[in-house]
């Protein structure tokens, strides 16, 4: 079959509706159709499959890949239909030969489709990687106050004025955004740190710190600092939500961790020379006693021991610390030191 017949087929296909995606994808279809027609008439295709080029164009045009594959299939069907009709008009022998080679159209189609899909996956991963990097850069700009707030807010779809709080999780929660979305809340996450458009509620296990609410997005860096303080007010190994302001004493201690550690060592230091079990028994006793409002009877009931045992343990603490547990100042100093001790990262082991 002559090249004139090929030209007729290509011209007929060119009358088909334009594919989505603009000139680049129209040119892609033209090259695909040329390859199909040449296959059909027994000529070697003059084109290698431009898979990478096609995938780049599709991603850039934001065209669904399925639309391209559907377009390939429609073009292949159109080529076959047109070739059949033209073959009937021209020459019966050539028509029969064309029928025998019809399978070549689908060989070419499969070659183009599979090459395109593989290239699209590579291109889409690269696009997603770049988009994630850009999103993270914009989010870090908002969290740090590095500048360009309006541009970053627009890129992230964040209002400059609204209801916000910053949430700091002990560990990143991969589906945090989806969980909050189910509650009707927008959120923007960078690993374990999120900006949330409302009260996150009971979001996750482990330690969770939440900043005070704020309205100006520009106040995010301060809110982040407060949320980090809030999460640090929860003793390691605990599972709780701490909103900044709920634990003022602990917040004060974690805001100056070195001073807090030195203070705990100064007040409780003699207890660290005791055997581990003995030390923990004394610390537990004073902790339960403080939570019982200084009531020895309630403390004994909680610890399943005699009241005199509680008094004896409290007396030992007074002797070891040099603080009186019958005076407000002595009580405050011991309990503050105990809070500082509890809030340490499990460095307690260094005293074991």
TrEMBL record:
The parts of the chain that form a coiled coil are none
Q: Which domain of life is it from?
A: Bacteria
The segment(s) forming the RsbT co-antagonist protein RsbRD N-terminal domain are 6-135
Chain segments annotated as transmembrane:
none
Give every PucR C-terminal helix-turn-helix domain span.
Answer: 282-340
Protein name listed in UniProt? Helix-turn-helix domain-containing protein
Q: Which organism is it from?
A: Kribbella sandramycini
Taxonomic path: Bacteria, Bacillati, Actinomycetota, Actinomycetes, Propionibacteriales
């Amino acid at each position: 079959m002559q090249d004139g017949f090929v030209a007729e087929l290509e011209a007929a296909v060119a009358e088909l509706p334009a594919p989505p995606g603009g000139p680049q994808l129209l040119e892609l279809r033209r090259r695909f159709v040329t390859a199909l027609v040449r296959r059909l008439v027994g000529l070697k295709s003059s084109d290698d499959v431009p898979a990478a080029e096609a995938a780049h164009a599709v991603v850039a045009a934001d065209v669904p890949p399925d639309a391209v594959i559907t377009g390939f299939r429609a073009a292949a069907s159109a080529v076959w239909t047109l070739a059949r009709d033209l073959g009937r008009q021209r020459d019966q022998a050539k028509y029969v030969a064309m029928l025998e080679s019809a399978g070549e159209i689908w060989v070419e189609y499969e070659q183009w489709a599979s090459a395109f899909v593989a290239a699209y996956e590579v291109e889409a991963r690269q696009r997603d990687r770049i988009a994630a990097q850009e999103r993270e850069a914009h989010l870090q700009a908002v969290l740090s106050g590095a500048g360009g707030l309006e541009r970053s807010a627009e890129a992230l779809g964040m209002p400059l004025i609204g209801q916000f709080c910053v949430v700091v999780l002990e560990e990143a929660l991969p589906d945090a955004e989806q969980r909050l979305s189910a509650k009707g809340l927008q959120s923007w996450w960078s690993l374990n740190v999120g900006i949330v458009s409302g009260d996150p509620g009971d979001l996750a296990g482990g330690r969770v710190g939440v900043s005070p609410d704020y309205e100006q997005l520009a106040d995010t860096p301060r809110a982040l600092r407060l949320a980090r303080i809030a999460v640090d007010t929860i003793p390691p190994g605990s599972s709780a939500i701490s909103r900044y302001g709920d634990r003022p004493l602990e917040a004060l201690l974690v805001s100056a961790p070195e001073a807090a550690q030195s203070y705990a060592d100064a007040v409780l230091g003699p207890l660290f020379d005791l055997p581990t079990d003995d030390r923990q028994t004394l610390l537990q006793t004073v902790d339960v006693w403080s939570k019982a409002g200084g009531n020895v009877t309630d403390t004994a009931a909680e610890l399943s021991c005699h009241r005199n045992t509680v008094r004896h343990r409290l007396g030992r603490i007074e002797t070891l610390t040099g603080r009186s547990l019958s005076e407000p100042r002595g009580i405050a100093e011991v309990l503050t030191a105990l809070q500082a001790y509890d809030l340490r990262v499990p460095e307690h082991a260094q005293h074991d």
